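How a chain folds remains the central question behind the approach discussed here. The record that follows shows the chain in one-letter code together with its fold in token form:
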Amino acid sequence: MAGKKQFDMDTAIDAAMIQFWRDGYADTSLGDLSRATGLNRSSIYSSLGDKDALFLRCLDLYAARYGEKYDAALECAASDPAAAVRAFFDVTLERIADPALPDGCLIAQSAMAIPVLSPAVAAHAEQALGFQHRRLRTALKAGRLTDRDADAFAVHAAAVNQSLAVMSRAGASPAQLLAIVGVTLDALSQAPRA
């Protein structure tokens, strides 16, 4: 349509996601989102919603993009739970090592910002963290760990996964991150199977 500015919605949401990921929810202004997406403020509001609505869309995009990779990594859990969890961590380590992406993790950042988030956004961030725990628990149960061990290792692995993102943002080296993963994998390999 002549005179109407066209833009790619997926590209704009991806750019907004990177902006939130880089600076966090609280430190991302509407001006930052406008620069990141190339859209003016009124176009952001009319096409993408207010800051909370856009942030929710970005969390959903991030969770879907990496959730699919985590699910694929955990597919071998029934035959080799330790290899599956290693592959799970590899998804995070590859994301951390990608120079085109911001350091850290959008979900981890969001969880740390829960006190300043609106109730709806905070609930969404908590839900995203919960998905990771449930994904790991389901995989470890498939690997025949007892209910208790599957739950304990799922909580632990989810916490380690989030700490990898935080540690990378704080400047931990790849060798240090691998050492953190190694401790978890060593403990998991000693877990009895049901």
